[in-house]
Specification:
This is Thioesterase-like protein. Pfam families: 4HBT_2 (PF13279). There is one protein chain. This protein is an alpha+beta fold. The protein has a single domain, classed as Thiol Ester Dehydrase, Chain A, CATH 3.10.129.10. Helices cover 24% and strands 40% of the residues. The longest helix has 18 residues.
Length: 141
């Protein structure tokens, strides 16, 4: 769980968190968690592999205003057994535990030289995904 600090630039003309800020915050959180589990930018460069998204979807439940204390809980919802495809979920929660937004991203790994999906997934990437926090209802695809 990560506490997020909202900025004035994150707001829209209605004075609540603009839709694209949710996606930006979730993307940064994914990269931070990948890094924490050994899937660093340097490792991705060395292995010529990077994450690629096929689908990104958000359900907005409650407004988030400047000064609202929000936490993001990021978890792996589903994954192929070889780590080649995955669905990551981001929950934007208030201090009271109320769900404000839910983002799910479906993705894979791209070979950054061949510009095609990476198969097989490098061992270090797979090992990092295995350590990634999982939802209570996590399942293999």
């Amino acid at each position: 769980m990560k506490h997020i600090q909202l900025r004035w630039a994150d707001l829209d003309p209605n004075f609540h968190l603009r839709h694209s800020s949710y996606y930006d915050l979730a993307a940064q959180e994914r990269i931070d968690i990948l890094d924490a589990y050994g899937i660093t930018l340097q490792l991705m460069k060395t292995e010529n592999v990077g994450p690629v998204l096929f689908k990104e979807q958000c359900e907005f439940r409650r407004e988030i205003h400047l000064g609202t204390k929000i936490h993001i809980v990021t978890s792996l919802l589903k994954m192929k057994r070889d780590g080649s495809r995955w669905i990551i979920q981001h929950e934007f929660l208030s201090e009271e535990g109320k769900l404000h937004a839910l983002i799910q991203v479906e993705g894979s790994w791209m070979d950054t030289v061949k510009r095609k999906l990476a198969r097989p997934v490098p061992v270090a990437i797979f090992e990092g995904l295995e350590k990634f926090p999982k939802t209570p209802d996590f399942e293999y695809l």
